[in-house]
Amino acid sequence: MDKTTSTGQPLIQVSDFEGPLDLLLHLIKTNEMDIYDIRITTITSQYLTYLHQMQTLQLDVAGEYFVMAANLMAIKAKLLLPKPQTVELTDDDEPDDPRTDLVTQLVEYQRYQRAAAELKDRALLRQQHFTRPAMPVPAETPLTVAPGVTVLDLQATLVRLAHRATVAQPVTQHVATEHFTIKDQMRTVLRRLDRLRHPIAFDRLFGRTPVLDEVVTTFLAVLELARQRRIALHQPSRLLPLEINAVKGGHDHDAISAD
User: Fold this and answer.
1) Torsion over CA: 252, 257, 258, 259 (sign)
2) Where exactly does CATH 1.10.10.580 map onto the chain?
3) pTM for this prediction
4) d(C-alpha 29, C-alpha 34), whole Å
5) Spatial contact of 244 and 156, defined as CB atoms under 8 Å apart
6) Which residue ranges of the chain lie beneath pLDDT 70?
7) pLDDT for the residue numbered 119
8) Which helix (H) or strand (E) holds 234?
9) How far, CA to CA in Å, does 13 sit from each of 105, 159, 206, 221?
10) Which residue in 240, 198, 238, 242 sits closest to 219, CA to CA?
11) How many CB atoms sit inside 10 A of residue 31's CB?
């Protein structure tokens, strides 16, 4: 429960608020008010108490706090003034409420607060994931690569396919959860080789408009299969695409490992 001063007003911690709207939302919540039906007299009194506390503590008060105080007092004055009835109001007509603009600001600020809280939760969740930093392939790691196929050839193949996937993407797109994993793509490659019973060009592992995630994940899956000696990489000539050859006895799908 919030502490109170000797006069019964809430004692507000100065450092808890990022601006006047943040303070007003706190006061509304503390007084259990409906944001669309603010008791402006109570809120104004408690808001001014907050400003006095800051002055008592000899703290600099940002100008926006005084602007909000002036707005609150102006709203309070309008609510206290008698409303002239020159024209009889119909059921569809409602008198202008001077609190409308303030309520609109508070509702909009609340939306930003909730969005910021959700982004913060996502950031905390992301911190629980650890990404292994990029590292070169160890020299002693065996790859089933035919003579003449170099790392530059593999890199050129990936760059060409990544460019094709990027060009095929629409200008705007939705960010979605990852749909491709290295382990799943390893199984997919082995199934394709089992079904075709002949070498297949790396480019033919994809459709006409592959997505970049699919290209990169499949490329990593191919490298992992080559490292495990389940497939062999071969390029008949510099002008022909990289080919994937099946290795006899290397098609055990259940023994897939993507460590």
Assistant:
1) negative
2) 151-170+177-255
3) 0.42
4) 8
5) no
6) 1-16, 57-61, 83-95, 137, 141-148, 167-178, 207, 238, 249-259
7) 92
8) strand 231-234
9) 23, 56, 60, 56
10) 242
11) 13
Residue 157 one-letter amino acid? T
Instruction: Tell me the H-state helices in the chain.
Output: 20-30, 40-56, 63-80, 100-126, 151-168, 182-196, 212-227
List the strands of the sheet with 231-234, edge to edge. 200-201, 243-246, 231-234
pLDDT tens-digit map of 196-238 = 778 888 888 876 777 788 888 888 888 888 888 888 888 777 6
- Which of these, 227, 233, 225, 215, lies nearest to 253 by C-alpha position? 225
Question: Half-sphere exposure (CA, 13 Å, Cβ side) for 144?
Answer: 18
Residues 202, 232 contacting (CB under 8 angstroms)? no
Axis crossing angle, helix 212-227 with helix 182-196, rounded to the nearest 10: 70
Rg (CA), the chain: 33
Determine whether domain 151-170+177-255 maps to CATH 1.10.10.10.
no
